[in-house]
Amino acid sequence: MSSKQEIAFIKHGDFSSINAKVLGILNRNFPDAHIEIIDIFSDLLSKKDVSNLYYCLKEYGIDILLGKRSVSTATYLRTPYIVDKIKKAIPEKLTNKHYTFTFQTQSLFDASIPGIPHFVYTDHTHLASLQYPAYNPHDLPCKELIKLERQVYQNATANFTMSSNISKSMIEDYSCSPEKVSCVYCGANIQVQEDESFTEDRYFHKNILFVGKDWERKGGPLLAEAFKTVLNHHSDATLTVVGCTPDLNLPNCNVVGEISLPNVKEYFKQASIFCLPTKIEPFGIVFLEAMACKLPIVASNIGAIPEFIIEDENGYMVEPNNSQQLARRIIDLISSPEKCKAFGEYGYELFWNRYTWEKTGLRIRKNIEQFL
Q: What share of the chain is helix, strand, coil (3-state, %, to 5)?
């Protein structure tokens, strides 16, 4: 690529640390291009628009009054008014240069400009949330916003997804052409090496690991209930909770709380199995991190999880809210260190064959080059 070529990378916040990885992908795969980073809040919406408060109340006021929603950043972004404002601000922001293409993460706004190839990379659609048994359809954004979301996908030159269930949602729920949708997967947020060594004696320790910031949504209460049953069969089993601080009155339970990513990796390396019976999950990069650390997994049978948990090969999937089934699967694994090791090895191979940022970057570049 010519050194004069420009790429605009439009994002919102850190996107669960994913935006930094995507920026790395663009830098590595288009090394001769200059990448301009635009954050919609700091660069386009630097001050909260008071007018949007009216639209927040108009669309979500009853839910806010009833305590079902808060006046948060998420609510602020989910109004037709603010989406339209971002749509008008993008061309004004990008008028001074000729861009080879523009690239946005998530589908909360439409950064496409006529005449410039535009690409979207996301882990979810709003309507895909209806797949989750625990999801309340009332929590969907207003109908007008769903229509605007449809335009995001249809206006894009191509849409990249992290999982095939989201690709399917774009095509079936949003009438997006299959030729404009590609599943390119994603990678882990923690740093891992392909030749990294992990001790095998940890599979004998019966240490169950939970990693997540949202204890309720990630199925923490269900795991706590299942752990009581586990202790009836293995009194020496332990539960380690990383990322949040639930008030638990359980024996053999260590609540670590939120820590840095490098330190999280150390808990992966000490665990025997990884368990996250999540109720709602757009993707779940934390599962990939467990696989990268050779851990067998017990998880819910929802969303993208069936795509990377191969039943009885690298883990088990359970029905949501079934604590007894969850307990049985955990007991099965901690009773067999040999099975833990075999499952861990299988997941490790799957991770390196499919779920790395390097491979995701190559898939994205290959797709983008078709349109340039």
A: 45, 15, 40
